[in-house]
TrEMBL record:
Pfam family, one: UvrD-helicase
SUPFAM superfamilies in the record: P-loop containing nucleoside triphosphate hydrolases
Keyword Transferase attached: no
Protein's name according to its UniProt entry: UvrD-like helicase ATP-binding domain-containing protein
Keywords (A to Z) from UniProt: ATP-binding, Helicase, Hydrolase, Nucleotide-binding
Record domain UvrD-like helicase ATP-binding: where: 23-113
InterPro entries associated with the record: DExx_box_DNA_helicase_dom_sf, P-loop_NTPase, UvrD-like_ATP-bd
Record-level Gene Ontology MF annotations: ATP binding; helicase activity; hydrolase activity
Keyword Metal-binding carried by entry: no
Organism of this sequence: Clostridium bovifaecis
């Protein structure tokens, strides 16, 4: 655990970021062409790869404790619906109406799920 925390803190200092793995969303960890663009990490670089792995492992430990951000909940819910389309039908049947408060602040992913 200490090594993971050390790597994550080093990353935050390196990038002058105030976030810690609790504030990093799963979507921030997306990889495309060996790049984690949102965290500005090149996974071909050994140091960046170690940092990425450390942050990912810490995020997974946080998830196992049941700690999720709203963004994580929407992202995971959307993934579940994509993998199990029957879930959407079940919830559409179960909940005839959905009240969305603060519609002006609604993100695209929340409207995709409903």
């Amino acid at each position: 655990m200490y090594l993971l925390e050390k790597e994550a803190k080093a990353f935050c200092r390196k990038n002058s970021k105030k976030f810690y793995p609790y504030n990093i969303k799963f979507s921030d960890l997306a990889i495309e062409n060996n790049q984690c663009r949102l965290l500005n990490l090149d996974l071909c670089n050994a140091e960046d790869k170690t940092i990425y792995k450390s942050i990912f492992q810490m995020k997974m430990m946080i998830l196992k404790r049941g700690i999720l951000s709203y963004s994580d909940i929407f992202m995971l819910g959307n993934e579940c619906i994509k993998k199990i389309p029957e879930l959407k039908n079940y919830f559409n049947y179960r909940f005839k109406y959905v009240f969305m408060d603060e519609v002006q602040d609604t993100k695209k992913i929340s409207t995709e799920i409903t």
